[in-house]
Amino acid sequence: MQGLRGRCHPLGVIRVSPTHVSLLGCIRLRFWRSIVATTSKPGADAIRPFSVAIPQGALDELVRRLAATRWPSRELVGDRSQGVQLATMQAVCRYWASGYDVGRVEARLNALPQFTSEIDGVEIHFLHVRSQHDDALPLIMTHGWPGSVMELLDSIGPLTDPTRYGGTAQDAFHAVLPSLPGYGFSAEPAEVGWDLGRTARAWAELMRRLGYTRFVAQGGDVGAGVTDAMGRQAPEGLVGIHTNLLVPALNDPAALPSGAEQERAAQAAIKTFQTSGNGYFVEQSTRPQTIGYALLDSPAALAAWMIDHDTDAYYKISRAFVDGQPSGNLTRDHVLDNITTYWLTGTGTSAARSYWEAYGPDAPAAQNPAPPPPVRVPVGFTSFPGEIWQTPRSWAEQAYPTLTYFHEAERGGHFAAWEEPELFAAELRAAFQPLRADRLAEPSR
């Protein structure tokens, strides 16, 4: 096949069915990527319209594998200290197999403008939603793990069309939402070296290709690491960043202020995370390939691995499935939209490898111990109460001397944009408001 980039990523007008598997051997059985137009502009900077087309056979296989799940015995404790509880997982898989509309991922993504572009050898999938307000501020938002662009979809409306959500036309953003390399409908890298800094450079290149000469960036979880790296690289056109996870705090928590009660509570939360809450982090940063076999073979294993991320999110998700009591926008359907994206794209392993690249002791990035340069652009930070640790202002100020906005939100957790999309959008409006003085000219596309 012509035009393959990265691994198992067909380019061109390709519609496949299960009978075509022998002809398209590199395409995974549960994953079908279809780009439904030719290149929109010539050369290496080509941006291609994209849509999702998942055959019924892949959806049927998902349901069949769920029905064939082999269940372990019940945990011996009354909480999640041994891992995801059996009652939670059985409720998740029961609804996934019989109550969930497995066609939601395709429908939700295809309702929005999607594109791909090859950047540094990897075909990157992204959503590009232009506001009706031409002078909107361009914004590139990066998801994390175990997230995907699905976790950001419900924030697009409040960000691009603020007048419908209590804002003004002056609050509008043009939204660019890329899938990280190896996640979702982006191709997976065929070589090592895709650390946070390389992804940050790819995002700057993507914004250049879109014609944006002045833009801001936002990220949480892994996306916070990418956004932090963008702030330190300060590429041409980047005028500010916003994050909701203080990534620098993990480098040396003991060096952060600890005199106030809130600071001591944050120190204790990080210690808890690093001693009993980061099993996924250790495995993915050291042996992602090992866990990857289970993630691609069993949808139940994939769901359990993803749900067991942090205490706050776990119990919120558990209540949604077991008790029928979702927290904000963290509903059963929205949770399964995200997990189903991982399953259908077969990216459990490649996504896990991103932790090895960013944090693994054997990765190329670990061989360069030099401290990173300081962030050189204005920084906004929002602390959400359900985050793994609540960041005190003093910590944000020490990590980011260019801090221009800090706020403690009333609700929300680690997946803030997912759980509270309107509140999240309001935080971005406030954080980036001072940077709207100079308006951007109309982009080239």
From TrEMBL:
Residue span, Epoxide hydrolase N-terminal domain:
47-151
The biological process GO terms on file are: epoxide metabolic process
Task: Please list the residues that make up the active site.
Answer: 221 (nucleophile), 355 (proton donor), 414 (proton acceptor)
Q: Which domain of life is it from?
A: Bacteria
Keyword Transcription regulation listed? The answer is: no
**Which keywords, in A-to-Z order, does the entry hold?**
Aromatic hydrocarbons catabolism, Hydrolase
**Does the record carry Hydrolase as a key word?**
yes
One example of the protein's molecular function in GO is: epoxide hydrolase activity
Protein family according to the UniProt entry: Belongs to the peptidase S33 family.
- Identify this protein by name: Epoxide hydrolase
Source organism of the structure: Kribbella capetownensis
Q: What is the lineage of its organism?
A: Bacteria, Bacillati, Actinomycetota, Actinomycetes, Propionibacteriales
